[in-house]
Write a structure and sequence with these properties.
Blueprint lengths: L1 E2 L5 H6 L4 E3 L4 H6 L2 E3 L5 H26 L1 H14 L2 H13 L1
Parallel strand pairs: 1-2, 2-3
Helix pairs in contact: 3-4, 3-5
């Protein structure tokens, strides 16, 4: 859901992912999940492409590490210690918001 006005706030709040424009009302900004700082919808497409690229890179790295048994345990421990689930969720929200 995208919106920038006061009348869009309930829909932004109830949507799975709500996008608001920086030029929108403060009510819409507060109700949204992601705020588009440059007022351009193409930035959503760019963020999704960038996120998919990062995900693909992490997947390739983990596949390589798991394919070598000596690195398997080390890679799993590093990922679980350095990137707890809460941090990964917060990081993904920050990446998509700009």
């Amino acid at each position: 859901m995208t919106g920038d006005g006061t009348n869009d706030a309930p829909a932004l709040r109830n949507a799975d992912v709500g996008f608001a424009m920086m030029s929108g009302t403060s009510i819409a900004k507060d109700a949204s999940d992601i705020l588009l700082l440059d007022n351009n919808f193409s930035s959503v497409v760019d963020a999704v492409k960038w996120g998919r690229s990062v995900y693909a890179g992490i997947t390739k790295f983990l596949q390589f590490q798991v394919s070598n048994p000596s690195h398997c345990c080390c890679a799993v421990h590093i990922v679980t210690l350095c990137f707890p689930a809460q941090y990964v969720a917060q990081m993904s929200r920050q990446i998509l918001s700009g």
